Amino acid sequence: MHNDTVRSERGSDKLMTQEDCDNLTWQLFGEPALIETNVYIQKPGAYAMNSLDKTQSGPTLIGMIHLDSLPGSPGFTGDFQHILTHALADASTLVDAGFDSLMVENYNDVPFFSNRVPAVTVASMSRCISAIRIAFPTTPIGVNVLRNDALSALSIAQACGAQYIRVNVLAGASVTDQGLIQSQAADLLRARAAWQSKVRIFADVGVKHAAPLGSSELAPVARDTAYRGLADALIVSGLATGSQTSKADLDTVKKAVPDREIFVGSGVTLNNFDPDVADGFIIGTSIKTDGRVCSKKARQIVVRRNHG
Fold first, then answer.
1. In angstroms, what CA-CA distances link 93 with 29, 141, 240, 248, 264?
2. How many domains does the chain have?
């Protein structure tokens, strides 16, 4: 049997093409999502490639989807449909504004676990990301399972068709409000190899809300993260969520690791956005109003990127 066909029924000789499968998925999941959430949904087609390639020149813009408190977390309201509605609406706003990619994280599951999250968190994030993938089949998606559950992030990405994950501490160790967070590289890279996964690993260098245990010099940390932790791309952030990232820190990391893409991980606003300082920007808090992505703010960032 060819890879682009599947049997429609067990034991049947009738085959479904990949287009048939896409259309069936659209009928089962796309239309209900459209009706319930009133969001823009891409037509079914080829799924996003395992990259962040785009037609628009300039740096990559990654928009954050901060999921509402998930089941199992103290803030969960008991209404999962509400979580899905908000996630799909934010995704729609970001895609319609012109963002290149979406990153989904359990932002409101405070207080966070330092490492492995419960199974219910993995299941809940998988459901949300699957819905986003079905609604936006050509948009690259990233996964971040806070605070540092890299294996769960990789599992979700692999199962749901996401393109990359974010790992807060891939190499070394950091002291955080969750306690000590340590390297995930050995287990993560072996799992990716065993699963023959093409999911890319974006790793923080000097992650926010943390203090490194050991050297705080960014250059050696960046080199260890890239060449010993085998990160595919590096993220440089400010001290906390919403804090502006230092241009000097970006320059240090770019000089230390010239063969990796460098992303700004925090503090990007319309007033300080400089498209020339990095390969990409992860943007969340500054484009939101009352916790939801604001279309006007998101579009302003895209216009600044496109036209300077």
1. 19, 15, 25, 32, 21
2. 2
Domain check: are 88 and 109 in the same one?
yes
86 and 137 fall within a common domain: yes
The span from the CA of 173 to the CA of 4, in Å, is 44
Tell me if residue 226 falls in helix, strand or coil: helix
93 is in which domain, residue-wise?
43-307
Q: In this structure, what DSSP letter does residue 285 have?
A: G
Q: Kindly report, residue by residue over 250-289, the tens digit of the pLDDT.
A: 999 999 999 999 999 989 999 999 999 999 999 999 999 9
Over residues 210-253, the pLDDT tens digits come to 676 666 789 999 999 999 999 999 999 877 666 788 899 999 99
Q: What is the DSSP letter of 20?
A: H
Q: Give the integer Cα–Cα distance in Å for 290 and 25.
A: 33
CA angle 238, 59, 296 (to 5 degrees): 80
CA distance to 80, 92, 170, 203, per residue, from 140 (Å): 24, 13, 22, 17
Length of the chain: 308
Q: What element of type H or E holds 87?
A: helix 80-97
| % of residues, the chain, pLDDT over 70 | 79
Q: What is the pLDDT of residues 261-270, one digit of tens each?
A: 999 998 999 9
* Share in percent of the chain as helix, strand, coil (round to 5): 35, 20, 45
Is residue 29 classed exposed, middle or buried when 0-12, 13-18 and 19+ CB atoms within 10 A define those classes? middle
Query: Which residues are CB-contacts of 198 (< 8 A; sequence separation ≥ 6)?
Result: 50
Name the amino acid, one letter, at 284: G
